[in-house]
Amino acid sequence: MRQTDRAGSTPDSRATAGVTAVREHRQRLRAWIESRTDELKEFHGAVYRTAEAALGAGRLLTRLLYDHGWGRTGWPVQAGGLGGPPVLRSVLYDELERAGYPAPVQYEMLETLAPAVIRFAPDLAARLLPSALTGEATWAQGFSEPEAGSDLASLRCRARREGDEYVLSGQKIWSSQGVGATRMGTLVRTGTTESRHRGLSMLMVDLSTPGVEVRPIRYANGHNELAEVFFDGARVPADRLVGDEGQGWAVAMYLLQFERGNYAWVRQAHIGRLVAELAAHTAPDTPAAAEVGAAWLAQQALRLRCGRTVQRLGAGEVAGAETSIDKVLLGTAEQRVCDAALSLRRPEFLFSDRDADEAWRSDWFYTRASTLYGGTAEIQRTIIADRVLGLPREGS
Amino acid sequence: MDADETRLLTESLRALFAETSDPEGLPVALAELGWDEVTAEHPAAEALLFEEQGRARAVSGLLDGVVLRELGAPPTAAVAYRLGTGGDLFEPAAPVVDGTVRLDAVLRAVGPRASIVVPVAAPEGTRVLRVPSADVEVKEVAGLDPDGGWSRVTAALDPASAEPAPLWGQAVAAGRRALAAELVGLARAALELAVRHVTDRRQFGRPVGGFQAVRFRLAEVAVGIEAAAEAIRVAFADGGPLAAAVAKALAGAAVDRAVRQAAQVCGAMGLTWEFPLHEVMRRAYGLDMLFGDWETLTADLGRHVMAAGTLPQLDPFSVPAL
Which chain B residues are within 8 Å of A29, Cβ to Cβ? Predict the structure, then answer.
C-alpha cells in the first residue's frame, strides 16, 4: 500500500529526515547567533525611529548573514543561494527574532516576491536575486492603485509594448518599503481595461529608470513606510517580464500564497518577540495573564498555521483559497499582540517617550494595516465564505 | 496518514457512530473496525475518532480509556475530572485542604465502574487515589447537558493511600488532545448546521447566506476551527503538555465562537428544541470544562508564558508536512 522508492525510503521516512534537517539547522544557527553577540550587538533589540533607518540597518544585517551563508541557505543555487529547502529560511527569521534581533525588513518583501520570480522567470531570478540576498538591492511590490485597491483586477497602470521594451504610464500606491527600494514587482495592464484580470502582466521595474518617480507616503506612525510611484513613459526591457504577457494575474495569485507562507512567518516571529517583551515587563496579575495568554495563543495559532503553509509551499503544493484563513489569523494576531500592549501598558503607551514605548506605538499603527494589505479582512472573509464554506454568493 | 487514508477512516468512523447508539456497544464496534491496529500505526488517528464522536454528539467512555491508558491504569476505573480551577496548568488535581482531599468532580464513565481515579495535588507532586466506587456517592446529573451521561461526585477523602503518579501530566495531555478533537467535531457540527440553514432559508427573495453580515460570521467560525485543527495536528505529533494545552484552548474558543454565531445566523429556528444546535452547545460547554475551560486555560497559559525566561514556542516544523 505504501510507496517505496529505490533507496527504500517511504514518504514518511523522507518527511522525518526533513524534520531532522530543520532541527539540526536550527541548532547550528542558534549556536552561531549565541557565539556572535559582539558582531551582532548593534542589531540587538534595536528600535528604529524612521523607515529609512530600519532599511539601512536591515541592509547591514542582511549582508552579514549573507557573508556567513545563513542568508543564502534555502535559496536556489542558480539565484545566488546555497540551496536546501525554503523552510530553512523560516528558521533564520525565527532564530533571529527569538534571540532579540529584528529580522531585516527586506526579507518581508523578498519572501513575498521572490518565489514568484523564481517560479515564473528563473533567468530573471538568476540575474536579480543575488544582489537582493546580499542586501544591496531592496525589492518592493507595486499592486494597488488609487482606483484599484480591493478590486485589484480593475487596475489601469499601462505597459505598452514597443520592440524589446515596455513603456509604462500610470501610478502605483501603498508600496511597502517603496522608499529606498531598488526595484519593484509591478502589476501592469498590457491588455484592455475590459479584459480585467486577463489583461495583466508582471514586470520587475528598476525604480532608477528615467520616467519613474517615487514619493514617500508618511504612514500614521510618522514613518515613510509606504510610497506612491509614478510612471511617465518609463521604458522597461521586455526581459523583465515575470511570466508571460497576460499572465500577471496568475503570477499575482501565486505570489499571494507566499504572503501567507514565509511572509506571515516573518511577522509571527516578529510579534513573538513582542509577546516575549510584554511578558517580561508586565506584573503577572490575573487580568494581565489573560491578556498575555490570549496574545500568545493568537501568535501560536498563526505560527502553526502559516508554518504548515510554508511546508506545503516548500513541497510544491498549491495552497489556494484556504490561505485566506492564514491571512485572517495574521491580522488577528498582529493586532491582538499590539492591543495587549495598549491595554497593559496604557500609561507608558500613551505618555512615555522611551524608545521601547515609541516602538510599541509604531507597531500598533503598523499592525492596523495587516487587515488591509494583501487583501482586506473583508476580502479574505468573502473568499472563505465562497470557496471554503461554499455559501451562496453575496447578493445571490 | 495520507489524505486518502484519513478520508476513509473518517467515513468508517462516521458510519460507526451513526449506527452505534449504545455507548457500551461502541468499544465492540471499534474492535470490529480494528481500531487498535489503526492507532498502533497512526497514533494521530485518535484525533479523528474524537472529532467524529463530537460531530455525532455520541456519549462514551473513550476519554477515560485514553487517560487511563496513559496513566498505566486498568480501564475498569472511572476518572474524576475536577471542576475547580487553580493549581498546576499541566497537572490539574484535587487540592488537599487541612489534610483532606476536597473532591468535586464529574465522571464521564459509561456503565458501572469498580473504582474512581482521583488525582490529588500533594505537596510532593501529583498523586492518585483509587477510591472504591461504593465508598463515595456518585449522582447522575442532568445539568446543562442532560443527554451527556454525566455524574457528579463530591467527597472529602483521606490522601494517605494516594500513590505517586508521575504519568499524570502525560495522561492530562492525552486527554486534552482528545477533548480538543471532540470540541472541534462539535464546532464543525455547529458550522454545518449553520451553513445548511443559511443556504436553504430565504428572506428578501434570496438565501440569507448571501448577506455579507451572515457570511462573515461563518467565515470567522471557519478560521477558529482550522486554527484549532492545526494545533491538534501539531499536538498529536509533538506529544508534549504545552501543545496539548494550546490545542484544547484553541478548540474551546473555536466551539464557543461556532455555537454563538450559529445561534445568530440560524435565527429563531436555531433556538427551538427540535433544532439540534442546543444539543451541540450543551455538549460543547460540558466538555470544554474538563481539564480546564478555554478562558481559564488562556489565563493559565499567560501565566506560564510570563514565568518562562524565553518565550515558549511550539514548532510546526517538528511535524512532517503531510
Answer: none
Residue whose entry in the numeric block shows the C-alpha cell 456497544: B25
Closest residue in A to B295 (Cα–Cα): A290
Q: What is the distance between the alpha carbons of residues B122 and B162, in angstroms, rounded to a whole number?
A: 9
Amino acid identity of residue B307, one-letter, is A
Query: How many CA atoms lie less than 13 Å away from A97 in the CB half-sphere?
Result: 25
pLDDT band at A331 (very low <50, low <70, confident <90, very high): very high
- Window from A8-22, A48-62, B3-17, B199-213 with minimum mean pLDDT: A8-22
> Which residues from chain B sit within 8 angstroms of residue A394, using beta carbons?
210-212, 215
Q: Are strands B206-207 and B202-203 parallel, antiparallel or unpaired?
A: antiparallel
- Strand partners for B151: B107, B140
Percentage, residues of chain A above pLDDT 90: 91
- E strand or H helix that includes residue A5: none
Q: Where are the domains of chain B?
A: 3-69, 76-164, 168-318
The residue type found at A7 is A
CA distance A51 to B167: 52
ipTM: 0.97
What SS3 class is residue A390?
coil
Q: Domain B76-164 is in which class?
A: mainly beta
Percent share of chain A, pLDDT over 70: 96
Contacting B residues, span 140-199, partner chain A, CB-CB under 8 Å: 191, 195, 198-199
Per CATH, the homologous superfamily of domain B168-318 is Butyryl-CoA Dehydrogenase, subunit A, domain 3 (1.20.140.10)
The whole-angstrom separation of Cα B280 and Cα B318 is 34
Give percent of chain B above pLDDT 90.
Answer: 91
Q: Which helix (H) or strand (E) holds A166?
A: strand A165-176
Give CA–CA dist A223/A202, Å, rounded.
Answer: 28
Among chain A residues, CA nearest to B209 = A392
Model confidence at A395, pLDDT cuts 50, 70, 90, reads: confident
pLDDT tens-digit readout, A357-385: 999 999 999 999 999 999 999 999 999 99
In one letter, which amino acid is A87?
A: V
Known catalytic residue at A259: yes
